[in-house]
Design brief:
The structure holds two protein chains of two kinds. Helices cover about 85% and strands about 0% of the residues of chain A. Chain A has helices at about 1-25, 30-35, 35-60, 65-90, 95-125, 130-160, 165-190, 195-220, 235-240. Chain A has one domain (about 1-240). The model of chain B is unreliable at about 30-35 (pLDDT under 50). Chain B is about 45% helix and about 0% strand. Chain B has one helix and no strands. Classes of the chains: A mainly alpha, B mainly alpha.
Chain lengths: ~240, ~60
C-alpha cells in the first residue's frame, strides 16, 4: 500500500514540477526564448506522461493500445533527449565554430550508426516489425545519449565553460540517464532480487524527479548564463606572491 | 579528410561504448532473470509483444 502511494506521489510530483516549470518559462517571452530547449523537453515529458496515464487507466497494462502508445512515446522521448543533448552541445560550442563543426559531424555519424546497428535487430526480428525495432532503437539511443552527455560534461570541464546553468542542466540529464542504468546493473548483479526489482522500479521515477529538481534550480536560481569565455586562471606564482 | 576519418572513428567508439554498456547492464539476462529495459519517465513498461488479435469466428 505504501509503495503504491509513493509511486503515485512521485508520478504526480513529476507532472506538477514539469507543468510548473513550463508555466514559469513561458510566463515571459524573453525567458521562453532563452530556455527553449528545456521547455521542449519538459513539454515532451509531460505530454507522454499524461497520454500514458490516461490510456493505462482506461485500457490497462496488457492492452495493445497501451503497448503501442508506450513504445511510440518512448521513441519520441528518446529522440527528444538526443535533440536536447545536441542543443546542449551547440550551446557549449556557441563561440567556438571550429569545435562545433567537429561536434556536429560526430553527432550526425553517431545517429546514423545507431540507426544502422538497430537495423540489424530489425532484420533479425522481421516478424515483430514495429515494437521490436522501436524498442531496440530506443534502448541503443538511450545509452548513446548517456555516453554523449558524459562527453559533453567532460568537454565543459575541458573548455572551462563559465555557463553555470548549462553545467547544471547537463548534470540533470546525467541523473536521468545514469541512474536507471546503474539501477539496472544492480538488478542483474543481484540476479533479480525482489528488493532490486522494487528499487529498479522506483529509480526511474526518482531519477526523473531528481533531474526536474536540478533543472528547476538551474532555471529559476541560476540566471547568469556566463560569457562563454574561459575562466581566467590565476598563475601559481601570482597566488604565492599575493600572500 | 583526416578529420573526417577521426570523427567517424570517434563516433564509432561512442556507439560501441553505448552498445557495450547496454549489453552489459540490460541485454544479457542472467539465470532466471529476464532482460529489462531502461526508459525515460517512470510509467510501467508493457509486455514487448502486444497480445495477439482474437481469431475471426468461423461460419
Amino acid at each position: 500500500m505504501a509503495s503504491i502511494i509513493v509511486s503515485y506521489g512521485l508520478q504526480y510530483g513529476c507532472m506538477l514540477i514539469e507543468a510548473a516549470l513550463i508555466c514559469y518559462c513561458v510566463s515571459s517571452a524573453r525567458r521562453a526564448k532563452r530556455e527553449l530547449t528545456p521547455i521542449l523537453y519538459l513539454a515532451a515529458l509531460l505530454g507522454a506522461a499524461l497520454a500514458r496515464s490516461s490510456v493505462l487507466h482506461i485500457y490497462g497494462l496488457r492492452s495493445s493500445k497501451y503497448s503501442y502508445l508506450y513504445w511510440t512515446t518512448d521513441f519520441l522521448l528518446v529522440i527528444a533527449a538526443f535533440l536536447v543533448v545536441c542543443l546542449f552541445f551547440r550551446r557549449a560550442c556557441f563561440h567556438q565554430e571550429k569545435l562545433w563543426r567537429f561536434v556536429r559531424l560526430l553527432l550526425f555519424f553517431t545517429f546514423v550508426m545507431v540507426v544502422g546497428i538497430s537495423g540489424l535487430s530489425f532484420l533479425n526480428h522481421y516478424g515483430r516489425l514495429s515494437v521490436s525495432y522501436i524498442a531496440e532503437f530506443s534502448q541503443d539511443l538511450y545509452f548513446t545519449c548517456l555516453v554523449l552527455n558524459t562527453m559533453l560534461y567532460l568537454m565543459l570541464l575541458q573548455i572551462e565553460s563559465t555557463d553555470d546553468q548549462l553545467g547544471l542542466l547537463v548534470c540533470g540529464v546525467g541523473i536521468q540517464f545514469a541512474g536507471p542504468a546503474a539501477s539496472m546493473a544492480f538488478y542483474h548483479l543481484t540476479t533479480g532480487d525482489h528488493f532490486a526489482a522494487s528499487l529498479n522500479y522506483f529509480t526511474l521515477r526518482v531519477c526523473t524527479l531528481g533531474m526536474l529538481l536540478v533543472w528547476a534550480y538551474a532555471i529559476v536560481c541560476v540566471r547568469d548564463r556566463g560569457t562563454k569565455v574561459a575562466r581566467h586562471k590565476i598563475p601559481a606564482f601570482a597566488e604565492v606572491t599575493a600572500d | 579528410m583526416k578529420n573526417l576519418v577521426l570523427t567517424f572513428l570517434l563516433a564509432l567508439l561512442v556507439v560501441l561504448t553505448a552498445i557495450s554498456a547496454r549489453r552489459m547492464v540490460a541485454g544479457n539476462s542472467t539465470a532466471g532473470v529476464s532482460p529489462t529495459l531502461v526508459a525515460i519517465g517512470g510509467d510501467p513498461v508493457p509486455p514487448m509483444d502486444p497480445p495477439p488479435k482474437p481469431p475471426k469466428p468461423s461460419n
